[in-house]
Design a protein that fits this description.
The chain has helices at 5-35, 42-62, 66-79, 87-108, 138-149, 164-170, 188-198, 215-223, 236-250, 264-276, 290-297, 313-321, 340-348, 361-383, 393-410, 424-431, 433-450, 474-490, 517-533, and strands spanning 130-134, 154-158, 175-179, 206-210, 226-231, 256-260, 280-284, 301-305, 307-308, 311-312, 331-335, 353-356, 414-421, 456-461, 464-470, 493-495, 498-500, 504-511, 539-541. The chain is an alpha/beta fold. The protein has four domains: 5-108, Four Helix Bundle (Hemerythrin (Met), subunit A); 122-250, Rossmann fold (3-Layer(aba) Sandwich); 256-381, Rossmann fold; 393-546, Alpha-Beta Plaits (2-Layer Sandwich). Helix 1 runs antiparallel to helix 2 (42-62) and helix 2 packs antiparallel against helix 3 (66-79). The chain starts with a helix and ends in a 9-residue tail after the last strand.
Length: 550
């Protein structure tokens, strides 16, 4: 698990020190190999030189020394990827190797700066997902582990490819980060994955890393089932975005399917097939219950038979489409007939597919799952902010209206919070808009992970966010949001090598102190204004004086 900030900061420095200390020895191996590039073993020595250079090419920039990576890249190209160097290469190779020796000796005599406030890492946010880094370069793997743990991932490291199978049996792993090159084999990481699959090993999602950026390596990684490919030095924020996407897919809620059919035996069969695939299924065999059940179950796809007693499935679909709430929900027809006229009728009333009975189980499951996934993606595009993935301004207000109505009916508590990033214009002015976007994304990511699954988050506009905390007292809400504030203020954000901290201010308003949506919005906004005026980086709670004020 992730360490606390002080310990992890010291560890980061220790990893850099180890890297600098072992640089001369790595260059010595290159010099020895260069002198040995004569005789019958020339190809073998060149291959070893190539692999040593490949490692330096990836690690130099990773540890903040781009010139090391650049020289290693030049030397690697001179070797011709393992072949014997020609006369021209021999003439220039020694000069660049000498420069590498100068750099190594110079850096080995240095120490990274002492730990200060700018070395404090991002505080982990506890996503609770385990990653396995498979890399034979211990310093690079350790540095990547520390950076990923700052984002709340639990990370293990494995250097021996032969131990992957046993490691997967001992520990649950959600994603594997696999380096392509290991020891003296340029595609060892790819090959071991193929062997594991041949042995029937069920592997989690794979992300490949490498100092190689060539199209062959990328295509081989894709063939091996990679869900991502990152050239070293790895862009950690881009890697975390990919990891978040993979984890989100794994965490998807079960698909909700409604079957509208009065043929009991067939309906039960379809239900069992879909439920076995992990879906939630609601069956409607009485049309008088259709609309109430739709409102209660909120289906993400409707399987509809073309005949339902004395009614046509076409008529039922047309009736469903008359309600704007169900305009976008996929409707898939099931039928024993497949005439072109029937299909055209189904398309005219807004059907998304037309499946002819009998339907193969796998085809049914795949068809339903893919359509629901597209439906979810479309709904997300329409309801959520494109940068953060949080609900947008309109839909967070709609959810607040729903939650206030629920709280009224159930006599429950609720707290509405408004957050605003402090001095955001200065961030854009000093570090650029791309850095500002990353700050917004980091806060949204932290809210998503640290808040409860029942809490509802949205981007209210610009650098302002809104959070709905159902069934929460003002005391608990204050404690939760203050913890989030402290965590966020401890984050270190980076832009072009510069590090900076950011804070946010927050205003809270509680239901039933403010018993309608507009009152909550205005009160939370007023409390947020007070937090800003009082010095920022603080939480303020709305009082009765905030009623009706803007």
């Amino acid at each position: 698990m992730a360490q606390d900030g002080t310990t992890q900061s010291k560890t980061l420095r220790d990893v850099r020190i180890r890297y600098l200390r072992q640089l001369p020895a790595r260059v010595q191996r290159l010099e020895d190999g260069w002198r040995a590039l004569d005789g019958e073993s020339c190809s073998t020595v060149a291959e070893r030189l190539y692999n040593e250079l490949h490692g330096l090419k990836g690690s130099g920039a990773t540890f903040g020394f781009p010139e090391i990576s650049e020289i290693a890249r030049e030397l690697e190209e001179m070797l011709g990827h393992g072949g014997e160097p020609d006369e021209t290469c021999r003439r220039h190779f020694g000069q660049r190797l000498a420069r590498l020796r100068e750099l190594a000796d110079e850096l080995a005599g240095q120490s990274p700066p002492a730990v200060d406030t700018d070395e404090t890492p991002m505080v982990p946010v506890g996503i609770g997902r385990r990653l396995l880094i498979v890399d034979d370069d211990p310093e690079q793997a350790e540095l990547l582990r520390l950076k990923l743990e700052q984002y709340g991932y639990e990370v293990g490291i494995l250097q021996d490819l032969g131990q992957i199978e046993s490691s997967l049996k001992e520990h649950a792993v959600d994603v594997i980060l696999m380096d392509i090159v290991h020891q003296h084999d340029k595609e060892a990481g790819l090959n071991i994955i193929s062997e594991l699959r041949d042995h029937g090993i069920d592997l989690p999602p794979l992300i490949f890393t490498s100092a190689r950026g060539d199209i062959h390596a990328r295509l081989r990684a894709t063939q091996a089932g990679g869900s991502g490919y990152f050239v070293k030095p790895v862009d950690v924020q881009a890697l975390v975005d990919t990891l978040d996407r993979l984890v989100q897919v794994a965490d998807e809620e079960p698909c909700r399917v409604m079957i509208v059919d009065d043929a009991a035996s067939l309906t039960e069969y379809y239900r069992s097939v879909l439920e076995e695939a992990g879906m939630q299924v609601s069956v409607v065999d009485d049309l008088s219950r259709l609309l109430p059940l739709m409102s209660e179950f909120a289906p993400e796809l409707i399987l509809l038979d073309t005949c339902f007693g004395r009614y046509s499935g076409i008529d039922i679909a047309a009736m469903i489409r008359q309600d704007e709430s169900w305009l976008r929900v996929p409707i898939v027809f099931l039928s024993g007939e497949s005439t072109i006229e029937r299909r055209l009728q189904a398309i005219r009333v807004g059907a998304d597919d037309y499946l002819t009975k009998p339907i193969h189980d796998d085809y049914l499951v795949t068809s339903v799952r893919m359509r629901i996934r597209r439906y979810r993606n479309l709904r997300m595009m329409m309801e959520r902010d494109s940068l953060t993935g949080l609900l947008d301004h309109v839909h967070i207000k709609e959810r607040l209206d729903v939650e206030v109505g629920r709280a009224l009916r159930q006599h429950a508590s609720l707290v509405f919070a408004m957050l605003d990033i402090d001095h955001f214009k200065q961030i854009n002015d000093h570090h650029g808009h791309a850095a500002g976007d990353r700050v917004i994304k980091n806060l949204s990511r932290m809210m998503t992970r640290r808040l409860r699954s029942s809490d509802i988050t949205g981007r209210y506009g610009g650098e302002e966010f809104a959070v709905i905390l159902p069934d929460t007292s003002i005391t608990d809400a204050t404690r939760l949001m203050d913890s989030l504030r402290e965590r966020f203020s401890d984050m270190i954000h980076e832009s072009e090598g510069r590090r900076f901290r950011v804070t946010f201010s927050c205003g809270l308003a509680a239901f039933p102190d403010f018993d309608h949506v507009q009152g909550l919005l205005e009160a939370a906004d007023r409390a947020l204004y007070r937090a800003k005026a009082a010095g920022r980086n603080r939480i303020e709670i709305a009082t009765p004086d905030d009623q009706g004020q803007v």
